[in-house]
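Entry 14. Structure prediction run on the chain below.
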Amino acid sequence: MHPQAPRRTTHAYGTPVNRLVYDRWGQFGRPVVLLHGLLYDRTMWWPVAAELGNTCSVLAVDLPGHGESAPRGDYDLSILTSDLAVLINRLDLHRAPVLVGHGESALLAEAFAAEYATKAVLTVDEPPDDLPETVEQHLATADLDAVPEPYRQFAVPRRDVALLHSYRSWFGKKKRDRTVSRAGFPHLSAPVSFATNLRSLI
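Output returned:
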């Protein structure tokens, strides 16, 4: 008899003011932290997390103001980086995490790695250097046609321009030499392959 894949459980960390809600799969092994892009939520990582099975402890976190995490008055990148470090540390897994950042969360994953012990960082669909002014401009970079129909339910954005603009402080601090391509959601286009590639970093 083969072992069953770990079931997803949902948790909340912090006070009502800075609460972060996350899903967890697995209780042991290296932490793998999955971070969604702006206007989406943690459910975009469910297919990949389920594929990772018992090989690690997977966390899919809602950014502040997204999903079930509380909105904040201050979305400063360094504060959220610190909050994420405390959340990971309280799991008592005693291993440096692998961080996976989709879209704008690539900036959060990179900021975390600059401050805290990290096994690896994987970024997907990295953002441009400046935040778009409108939700339509933001969504125009997303190629949902590449996502098979059964997985599109995991990439439903909020059309909230105020939420989008609340993250403006993340941008414009440091220009990176890179080419930004159209976002194809590879973790939803082929979750099995994505999970296989991610295991090589664990």
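Strands lie at 9-13, 20-25, 31-35, 57-61, 98-102, 120-124.
Filed with the rest of this week's runs.
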